[in-house]
Write a structure and sequence with these properties.
The chain has one domain: Immunoglobulin-like (Sandwich). Helices cover 9% and strands 39% of the residues. It has four helices and 15 strands. The longest helix is centred in the C-terminal third of the chain and has 8 residues. It starts with a strand and ends with a strand.
Length: 223
């Protein structure tokens, strides 16, 4: 598996509009593997990525049901809500990565996850600083809080832009150029909704739900 990230001269401000002409230029991937026993609710989930010289843009579209969002603050446990996630390892020959997790209301959690070699040297995973999280531009189609749970079929989108300066700050990596290859995976979950589920783009292993498996990340090619 692989995904090709198309380039654009300049990204517009995020607006969570999946149908915009800008996003029509991007390739589409689908989160469609549900390898673990769950409630049976497998909402069709798609994602697209674009980039310019300054940032990487990510948009998700979810045809959902049983939609909930109660996490309010940056670094709250958004995976308990209706949530989409993008994990990305930007350094060649390293499995250190960012996990960008965002609920349907636009609340985000981000960790800088240590590589196998870093953990062996005593280095640990840690949170992205709040002031750095404020540099991520976000748009979402639903209100910030969705409670009580929406039980009718609902389509929702989230879009966020990740400055390459953040990657350089946390990984000492240069901004990508055409031909650069990162690695990553995409997920859909809703741990504390009435119908919990755990979906992935690239299939992963294990008997229990676990998205933190960089060995299963797949190539992301910058066009």
């Amino acid at each position: 598996m692989r995904y090709v990230i198309r380039s654009v001269p300049a990204l517009d401000a995020p607006d969570a509009n999946w149908d915009s002409p800008r996003w029509a230029t991007a390739d589409t991937l689908h989160v469609s593997a549900y390898p673990w026993e769950d409630s049976g609710h497998h909402p069709p989930t798609s994602a697209r990525l674009l980039y310019d010289s300054e940032a990487l843009a990510v948009i998700f579209r979810v045809e959902d049901r049983y939609v909930r969002a109660v996490a309010r603050r940056f670094q709250d446990s958004v995976c308990q809500d209706s949530c989409v996630e993008f994990f990305v390892a930007p350094v060649p020959d390293s499995d250190a990565y960012f996990n960008f997790e965002v609920n349907c209301g636009g609340t985000m959690l981000v960790h800088r996850c240590a590589s196998t070699a870093e953990r062996a040297a005593g280095k640990q995973t840690y949170d992205m600083a709040a002031q750095d999280g404020e540099r991520i531009r976000m748009a979402h189609s639903l209100p910030s809080i969705v409670e009580p749970e929406i039980t009718e079929p609902t389509v929702w989108t989230v879009e966020y832009h990740l400055p390459f300066a953040l990657f350089r700050q946390y990984f000492a990596v240069e901004p990508p150029r055409p031909g650069t290859v990162w690695r990553g995976n995409f997920y859909k979950c809703g741990d504390a909704t009435s119908h919990p589920h755990w979906g992935t783009w690239a299939p992963v292993g294990g008997a229990r739900p676990n998205f933190h498996q960089p060995a299963f990340f797949q190539p992301l090619h910058f066009a």
